[in-house]
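Hi R.,

Here's the chain you asked about this morning:
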Amino acid sequence: MAPEPQRSQDPQEPQNSQEPQRPGGGPQERGEPARRAGIGKGPGTLLVTLYGIFTVGAASRSIVQLTTRFDEAPLAYVLSAVAALVYAFITLSLVRGGERARRAAFGCCCVELLGVLAVGTWTLVEPSAFPDATVWSDYGMGYLFIPVVLPVTGLIWLRRSRTGEPGRTS
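And the predicted structure, written out as tokens:
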């Protein structure tokens, strides 16, 4: 009789093909539900789409403004670039999925909401500081207030899509 092959002692390496796998392809961690909805799936698809659109819009706008008119309103243009980076990170986190990405997206949605509220208030209190508008000016009024609604919606979706709690399957 042939001896059994040695099993790897590396906890990151799957021991056999019957071991549950994560959607990303790695072995499932202990305590992680066997099935879970992705944070970018279902209603999350709309969030991914909106964040993707806002990433492209804010990034392209800020690149043009920063390279052609930086001296006109540097604060506004830099804040638009920051907004684009926040939107891009949230988009990538939603697409990636998983508990760590969900937590990262949740934190960025909090930062985004704080940014919208701070910049929105600042533009109303001291309009002279912003000779040109940002994505977050006047709470996103130039964008149909989507910049203030989007992080709230994202926070609600990310809170409902938690996977790390016992007894939750989505």
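The CA atoms of residues 111 and 168 lie 26 Å apart.

Let me know if you need anything else.
M.
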